[in-house]
Amino acid sequence: MPTYPYIILDAEPLGNVTAPFARAGVAPTYSQRCRQWIRDCEAAGTVFIVPAITYYEVVRDFYQRKAPAKIARLQNFCFDPTRFLPLATDDLTRAAELWGMLRNQGIPTAGSQSLDADVIFAAQVLSLNLPSDEYIVATSNPNHLSRFGLPVDTWENITP
Amino acid sequence: MSLDLAPEIEKTVREYAAAEGVSVNELMVRHFPPRKEVRTPASHVQALLEQRQKEYGLPPRPDGKAHSTLTELFDAWEAEDANLSPEQIEQEVNFAEEYERRERQSLSI
Q1: pLDDT, tens digit, for every residue of A52-89?
Q2: Which of A29, A49, A85, B48 is the most buried (most CB within 10 A)?
Q3: Which of B70, B95, B104 shows the shortest C-beta gap to A39?
Q4: What is the pLDDT of residues B3-24, one digit of tens each?
Q5: A 50-109 residues inside an 8 A Cβ radius of B
Q6: What ipTM did this prediction achieve?
Q7: CA closest to A47 among chain B residues
Q8: For the sheet containing A152-154, what is the strand order?
Q9: Of A7, A15, A31, A54, nearest to A159 (Cα)?
Q10: CB contact under 8 A, A79 and B59
Q11: Which listed CATH number (1.50.10.20, 3.40.50.1010, 3.20.20.30, 3.30.750.24) goes with A6-86+130-157?
């Protein structure tokens, strides 16, 4: 049994899946360790979910850096029927509600003119309606997502 | 549709229906309501993903495959990476390090 049946990927661990593979005798980089962690989690039975907004956050960086091979790998990872959560209009409505509620509580999550991908990410995760002990959000910086009340931790702290 | 009941069972069912003042059909509905589908978290999530993908689309994968486990996917990439030259490996590692740097920078904004 995996520690969490579901792990929702935030942008940083997702971008790391396309890292090159470590060579024998060479210490793995941070990205390579992250991808190995993803592999270990799936081997333990965890299902990874990729919200569409996370895909957007990563692929835009790859487009800016003109990396078509990376884009192809990322799409092969994300566009799988067992992993990809498309963005729905309901997600945007929920994100807007969250955005307004947090602003009214004095908890801004991004600049006023920013699209605020974090709040859209939170709305997509909440749309899954999973019990909080059934999943965790894997990220590199839990602070920016924990304000939405999501169970969240750095990928390095999540045991496969 | 009919049920093939043993005569003594059928007699008992009819007696219960008569005692409750309802038809056999009503008796059956009263005591055997439609079963609710058991939705485990796994079936619930997969159903949601399928419904969303049907409604909003799931783009085709560049490799043309419909599905693969991560182990299958990573094994294929590892085989591709085995052919990289040392210069290409260095480029790849630099790309990944730059990605990490950009991500951390964006989080600190």
Answers
A1: 999 999 999 999 999 999 999 999 999 999 999 999 99
A2: A85
A3: B70
A4: 788 888 889 999 998 998 888 8
A5: 61, 65, 67, 70, 72-73, 75-77, 79-88
A6: 0.86
A7: B42
A8: A84-85, A47-51, A6-9, A135-139, A152-154
A9: A7
A10: yes
A11: 3.40.50.1010
